[in-house]
Write a structure and sequence with these properties.
Length: about 475
């Protein structure tokens, strides 16, 4: 099975359907079909493995992939208007409202959650039949097909980066792999991502845990140790499918908002937290009320940082991607969060990332904060990761790869100050000195260069991001003024 052939065939068919508007909808359409195909393949395994009692699917028989999607070339496969009516008026309404009681398992609950906020966008039933037939060609019982499909799925996830606002759901795999490697999870440790998107961090952790598995008990412990929560429907569906592809049969991933609970209640705590919180967005005032006054921010990333501080277990480790705005902020919630971070945790490393790591979705400059819950911060190392030689920027055709982190990985265990052209590239600062700077963490930054001339679309995007940043800062100051007035 050719990777490029499968993806191109699906894209070419769906471009002819008037109901599909852009890459994000095309991806969503493909993924709910893939979910049902993969879930059906998993159910075949669960049926075979059932010994105590016959396996019973949570999906009604008429809606199981094998009973409506498979074209057996006998002229009986649904197509055209009949297929559209079945999908729109039977399949989706039924799966969105599956009756589940308190005894329902995670693998059962995940079906309803996967369809709650998703839709069928295709309007041509003949084209929909063609898409279904292409997807059904994948044989999940074949090792070659399953391995190849893993690469197809990664291709689909990467395409999110250029799919408008959907790009926020995907963190480049090189970044998630690097962060997971530096935290080095062990079997038995619980790993969490409170805004898990497509599940990239969980998969990166799983890749490091799998070589440690020595028994069935280890496998069960490993799979049960991964925890994810995602607010939006498309990335949640992508994440659930991703977990099934990696043989996590009952994934602990939830379709909900991690911020929609009182943060002081804490809930479960975790040994490892790997996150790229959404930033540049804002939450409703009702959500902000779930946080102590000093942490109430109009910036989503700040609220997630508060959640992390509450839910990182004693002795636990965390790696979190945050924008420059968090590093620079010296008042309001940002300062309060950093003061608590230094008092409760050991912020031992800050990696400054090149601006284009998340291109083309965003040009905001980001950083990785590494900290653990092993006492307060005494000193923090900063390391600026420059672009590889010969690169002016990362791009869709020249994305960041894990080997681009080689300089920082070589430096990690033998830390030393680095200076290039009289500008610090790596340096260590005492916590007291950082506190004296009002917790401004803008250290070992990128040298200022002459302003580059950008294409109009990218220039507009940057101005919009700057406007969002300024609006968030103004909201934060206004909140503090209102709080002081008792309003």
């Amino acid at each position: 099975m050719s990777l490029s052939t499968i993806v191109k065939r699906l894209q070419n068919i769906m471009r002819n359907d008037t109901g599909i508007n852009g890459d994000a909808q095309r991806i969503e359409q493909i993924v709910w079909l893939l979910f049902l195909k993969i879930y059906d393949a998993k159910e075949a395994d669960w049926e075979f493995m059932a010994t105590d009692a016959p396996y019973r699917s949570v999906i009604p028989e008429r809606l199981r992939w094998r009973n409506w999607a498979v074209d057996r070339a006998d002229g009986q496969a649904m197509t055209g208007d009949a297929l559209l009516q079945f999908v729109n008026n039977d399949l989706f309404p039924t799966l969105k409202n599956l009756p589940l009681d308190e005894h329902a398992t995670r693998r059962q609950r995940i079906v309803r959650a996967a369809f709650e906020d998703n839709n069928n966008y295709m309007k041509d039933g003949i084209l929909l039949r063609q898409v279904i037939n292409v997807i059904d060609e994948i044989d999940f019982e074949s090792y070659e097909d399953r391995h190849a499909f893993g690469e197809i799925y990664e291709t689909i996830l990467k395409s999110l980066q250029s799919a408008g606002n959907a790009g926020e759901f995907y963190t480049p795999r090189a970044v998630t792999d690097f962060m997971a490697r530096m935290l080095a999870p062990k079997i038995g440790e619980r790993v969490a991502d409170f805004a898990c998107g497509t599940g990239g961090f969980l998969v990166s952790a799983l890749k490091l845990l799998e070589p440690q598995i020595r028994s069935t008990e280890d496998r069960e412990l490993c799979n049960a140790s991964l925890y994810g929560c995602e607010k939006k429907a498309l990335p949640y569906l992508l994440c659930a499918t991703n977990m099934f592809l990696h043989d996590v049969d009952s994934p602990n991933v939830f379709h909900s908002n991690s911020l929609a609970r009182r943060v002081q209640d804490r809930g479960e705590t975790f040994d490892i937290i790997l996150m790229n919180p959404p930033y540049g967005g804002s939450e409703l005032e009702a959500i902000r009320q779930n946080f102590p006054v000093e942490f109430r921010s109009s910036e989503t990333a700040d609220l997630f940082m508060a959640v992390i501080l509450y839910r990182l277990r004693e002795g636990g480790r965390a790696a979190v991607i945050l924008p420059d705005g968090f590093l620079f902020g010296v008042d309001g919630a940002k300062r309060a969060l950093k003061e608590v971070l230094f008092a409760r945790c050991n912020l031992h490393t800050v990696i400054r990332l090149p601006r284009s790591v998340f291109a083309p979705y965003t040009g905001i400059t980001t950083n990785i904060l590494f900290f653990d819950r092993n006492g307060p911060t005494r000193e923090t190392w900063f390391y600026r990761l420059d672009l590889p030689e010969g690169y002016k920027a990362f791009s869709k055709t020249k994305p960041m790869r894990l080997e681009h982190f080689a300089p920082v990985m070589d430096w990690w265990n033998a830390r030393r100050p680095l200076v290039e052209n009289d500008v610090p590239r790596a340096a260590c600062y005492a916590a007291a000195d950082i506190a004296a700077r009002d917790y401004n963490l803008d250290l070992c930054g990128f040298p200022h260069e002459e302003e580059e001339i950008l294409p109009p679309a990218e220039l507009i995007a940057r101005y919009r991001e700057e406007r969002q940043r300024l609006a968030a800062a103004l909201d934060e100051r206004l909140d503090r003024i209102l709080a002081a007035l008792g309003e």
